[in-house]
UniProtKB/TrEMBL annotation:
Organism: Hexamita inflata
SMART domains in UniProt: ARF (SM00177), SAR (SM00178)
SUPFAM superfamilies registered for this protein in UniProt: P-loop containing nucleoside triphosphate hydrolases
Residue numbers binding Mg(2+): 20, 37
Family, similarity comment: Belongs to the small GTPase superfamily. Arf family.
Binding site for GTP: 13-20, 59, 117-120
Name the record gives this protein: ADP-ribosylation factor like protein 2a
Cited InterPro entries: ARL2/3, P-loop_NTPase, Small_GTP-bd, Small_GTPase_ARF/SAR
Source taxonomy: Eukaryota, Metamonada, Diplomonadida, Hexamitidae, Hexamitinae
Amino acid sequence: MGTQQSKNILILGLDNSGKTTLLKKISAEDSTVSLPTLGYTEKQLKLKNINIKCIEVGGRQQLRSTWDQFYKNIDQLIWVVDAADHRRMQEVSLEIDIVLTKLIQVKNKVSVLVLANKCDLQLAMTEAEVAQRLALHTFTIDYSIQKCSALRGDGIEDAINWIVQKSAK
Ligand SMILES: Nc1nc2c(ncn2[C@@H]2O[C@H](COP(=O)(O)OP(=O)(O)OP(=O)(O)O)[C@@H](O)[C@H]2O)c(=O)[nH]1
Ligand SMILES: [Mg+2]
C-alpha cells in the first residue's frame, strides 16, 4: 500500500553492448539512435508504480575506472553483454569478474541481471552460453541471466518484470 519506494539501478557493460539503447527502450523512447556515452547518464523512471533511478556509465576503456564510485548506493546491477560479439567475450568476462568481485565487497545485498543483448542477430549466443563464458556460477551473488534485443524490444518486458520483482523485496 502506498509507500513510495525508490530504487537505484546501475547499468554497466562494455562499450557498444547496448546500455543506452536498453535504457531508451525501457523508458519507451526511440531507441534506434544512440551515441557512445561519455561519462554517465541518469534517468528517473516509474515502472509499475516504483520509482527507479537508472544510471548508465559508459563502457569505453578509459571510463571503466570510474565504475567503482557508483557501487555504494545501488540496489540492482544490470550488466549488458553484446551476445553476438564472440571476439570480445574474453574481455567481458574479465571486466564482469572485476566488477562483481568489488561489488560483493561493497554491498551484501544486490541483485544482478545479466542481459545477453542483441539476440536479434544471427550469431548471438544463447543465455546458457553467455553464462558459461562468464563463469557466472562461480560468484556468490544473486544473479539471473536473460536474453533480449534492446533494439527490437524482445525480452524487455521480462527485464522490466525482473526489476520490479527485485524492487518489491
Ligand atoms: N542488432 C542490435 N543492435 C543493437 C542492440 N542494442 C544496441 N544495438 C546497437 O549497438 C550499438 C551500441 O549501442 P549503445 O546502446 O550506444 O551501446 P552502449 O553500451 O550504451 O555503449 P557505451 O555508451 O559506449 O558504453 C548501436 O549501434 C545500437 O543500435 C540490439 O539489441 N540489437
Ligand atoms: Mg551508452
